[in-house]
Design a protein that fits this description.
It contains 3 helices and 7 strands. The protein is α+β, with helices and mostly antiparallel strands. The longest helix is centred in the N-terminal third of the chain and has 22 residues.
Length: about 160
């Protein structure tokens, strides 16, 4: 038996299709790295925050970042109402954490110290709210005290 190889001359549309596939893949990859943002109003102070709205973003949080990069904080949004533990995984700076039920503050943890880098997951200190929440807002350490926040206060979130 003889095998015949057939050479097919590439056509211009082959190159166009390949270029579209490559550009789409690169664009999708860049889009996935872009974090959504929102504006938060706390005690009359409005600022832009990153929104951690996927599991991958929630796990990453501020890990391995030297600072907040010009953002006022990070808002973690959850699809379920429950106990959402926060950890200071691979952090380089302290935070204030506020747990929210809708737009109402239900608990706060001021001035949480960063955890050392590369600590095993089971050795990280989890921080829980006393009640179930729908979102968590991480802010620079000292924010809770400087803005005189208390449980029951409201926070407005917009895009």
């Amino acid at each position: 038996m003889f095998s015949h190889r057939v050479y097919v001359e590439p056509r211009p549309w082959h190159f166009v299709l390949l270029a579209v596939v490559v550009i789409t893949a690169i664009g999708f990859s860049i889009y996935q790295k872009q974090w959504p943002t929102a504006y938060v109003n706390v005690s009359g102070d409005t600022f832009k925050v990153l929104v951690a709205n996927t599991y991958a973003r929630q796990v990453e949080g501020w890990s391995n970042k030297k600072n907040m990069g010009g953002y006022g904080g990070m808002l973690f949004t959850f699809s379920d109402y429950g106990q959402h533990a926060m950890v200071m995984r691979d952090m380089d700076f302290p935070l204030d954490i506020i747990w929210l039920d809708g737009n109402r503050i239900i608990d706060m943890a001021p001035n949480l110290p960063p955890a050392q880098h590369n600590i095993p997951e089971n050795e990280l200190t989890p921080y829980f709210a006393r009640l179930s929440s729908t979102a968590v807002l991480e802010l620079p350490a000292g924010f809770i005290v400087s803005h005189h926040l208390k449980i029951g206060d409201t926070i407005t979130v917009g895009t």
